[in-house]
UniProtKB/TrEMBL annotation:
Name of one Pfam family that matches: DsbD_N
Organism: Rubritalea squalenifaciens DSM 18772
Signal peptide from the UniProt entry: 1-30
Superkingdom per UniProt: Bacteria
Record has Signal as a keyword: yes
Protein name per UniProt: Thiol-disulfide interchange protein, contains DsbC and DsbD domains
Boundaries of every Thiol:disulfide interchange protein DsbD N-terminal domain copy: 48-157
Assigned keywords, A-Z: Signal
Length: 282
């Protein structure tokens, strides 16, 4: 899925550049940190050899501003991190908290208006020969309101090496909040794709848990098959199931065999990944 996201992002970048050219001079190349405060934090003040530790890039938005989720939709670019680590260390992919619907000018998008922490797992080697280490992340982002402000910064985090982890209470609280916002699969929610692979209309059948009747349903596409500018038609069935119908994104290559989604149902965010109907089925 990551290769497909990278391909879609390249296509979206071209589209995005054409789009923002129509909004100039509202889109400005402004000074750093316009609309946003960004910092690199850790759940622990120390690093213990062989024991993973959770890091977070905390995004604090000024009122009216937003940054973008990993799959922003028709406009926007996701926050990206390039890591510089000591020898023997590795870091995971970003774990993204659930997104929100937002707008860049009149264009709908998927991102974050609330303050949010993007999580990664730092994996240290079993042996660390120094008394301290430094972790660096080159962060790049797009922060928008009525105007858009691209930004970059090299974030640095020193950590003392210790046999015993020492918690950082303030940062741990932010990281725990973010963990609670990571969408997870829930076996009580059932989903299937009624469309065939590559169909111009994507139709998803959702079966909520028994005795529940969610009123507000929305699908966030994790890989861009559904874009943020497409209206989602919600149809409630007599048996309690829900059908969501939406046109396929014009940027999608129409080759995926599954449909990774974040399902928003009222105040719940559930990770689902139904498989497309077989090409030869009726």
């Amino acid at each position: 899925m990551h290769a497909k996201l990278n391909r879609l992002l390249k296509m979206k970048l071209t589209h995005f550049c054409l789009l923002i050219s129509t909004l100039l001079p509202s889109i400005l190349m402004a000074g750093e940190h316009d609309g946003l405060e960004i910092s690199l934090i850790a759940e622990s003040k120390t690093i213990t050899p062989g024991k993973p530790v959770t890091l977070g890039v905390h995004l604090k938005h000024k009122p009216g501003f937003h940054t973008y989720w990993k799959s922003p939709g028709i406009v926007g670019m996701p926050t990206q991190l390039e890591w510089k680590l000591p020898d023997g260390f590795s870091v995971s992919e970003i774990q993204w908290p659930y997104p929100e619907k937002s707008f860049m000018a009149e264009y709908s998008c998927h991102g974050y208006e609330r303050d949010v922490t993007l999580l990664v797992t730092l994996n240290p080697p079993k042996t660390i020969s120094t008394d301290s280490i430094s972790v660096e992340a080159f962060a790049s982002w797009m922060c928008c309101a009525k105007e858009c402000f691209p930004g970059t910064e090299t974030l640095k985090l020193p950590l003392q090496v210790s046999d015993t982890p020492v918690a950082s209470p303030v940062h741990l609280k932010l990281i725990e909040q973010a963990r609670q916002q990571i969408p997870k699969a829930n076996p009580l929610w059932k989903a299937s794709v009624l469309s065939k692979i590559g169909a111009p209309q994507i139709k998803v059948l959702i079966r909520p848990p028994r005795n529940t009747k969610p009123k507000n349903i929305y699908l966030f596409s994790e890989d861009g098959q559904i874009s943020s500018d497409k209206k989602q038609l919600i149809t409630y069935q007599e048996d309690g199931s829900i059908i969501v119908t939406v046109p396929r994104s014009e940027l999608d290559d129409a080759k995926s065999t599954n449909l990774p989604l974040i399902l928003k149902a009222d105040n719940q965010y559930v990770s689902i990944c139904p498989v497309y109907k077989n090409l030869h089925s009726q």
